[in-house]
Structure formats: C-alpha cells, structure tokens
Amino acid sequence: MNQSEYEELIHNVADFPKPGVVFKDMSPLLSEKLSEVVSDMGREINWNEIDLIVGIESRGFILGSAMAIKYGKGFLPMRKKGKLPPPVIGEEYELEYGTDKLEMRVNDKIKRVCLVDDVLATGGTLKAGLSLCEKNKFEVKAISVLIDLQFLNELAASDQRIHSVLQYK
Q: Could you tell me which residues come within 8 angstroms of residue 30 by beta carbon, excluding any fewer than 6 positions away?
C-alpha cells in the first residue's frame, strides 16, 4: 500500500492533547487496514535476529502484539509508570507536551528485540524505550513505527535504523 492511501485513513485532530499539537488519529486506518499495516511495519526487519517484540504503551501494544502474532514472536509490554507489578525498572523522558516514565518487568535473560511504537515525534519515548531495553538486557535489533514525524524527531541523525511506514518531512 502506498503512503497516500494510508494517509487518507488517518485523521488529523488539531490542538489535541494540548493547543498546538496535531494528533494523528490512526483508528480509522487500523480498523480498515490493520493486516496491511502490520505487514508493512515488519517488511524490512530481519526476523531471524528477533526473539521478542517490545511494544510501548499504548498503541505500540496493538501494533506490536499483532506483529508478534504475524511473525511468530513473543510480546512484552513497556508500560507507563505504576501499571506493572514489581519488580520493574523505569526510565523517565520528555514528551513534546510534558514528561512521563516508562517501566518494564525486570528481565534476567539476554534477548534480541524489536521495539514497536505508533508515532515517532520528538524521539523522547523511543530514546527512553531504547535506554530501558539496554538496562534490562535486551539488545534492540530493530525499531518499527507506523508514523515518523521526521520534522520533529532527533533520532533521524542517530545510529538507530528506524523502520517506518509513513514519513512526514
């Protein structure tokens, strides 16, 4: 599927969650094309290098768990602060409209993971996710996002290869 066909199914919601932010509502896209989106998100990933998919709350859960089913991998949620039972480790980060903290259960085995989220905006969430994975003995072999807002993020200049289906420059 090409970018314009997907874009037609994404609604832009102005001033949400705060004034000045344009929220990309992907609900219509997922309700119409979830299978295609999941295939496109996983197309460039070497699945032989992946043991587990880590999905970032909350839409990363939807996309990541669907990818885990499609590609025969396990799934682990990376949650917002206070949502998981102990023991957990966490990482605080800046958002384009505030601060937050991600947590995940403490891991004791080295695993190779694909980190999944819905939108890459400033990069704060993904940077925190990467750091949290590294602290938790997960080697991030791939990152996959549905939407990359390239005009906002700082990760475009980093060493991390980010697989994205839709790019906004």
A: 37, 62
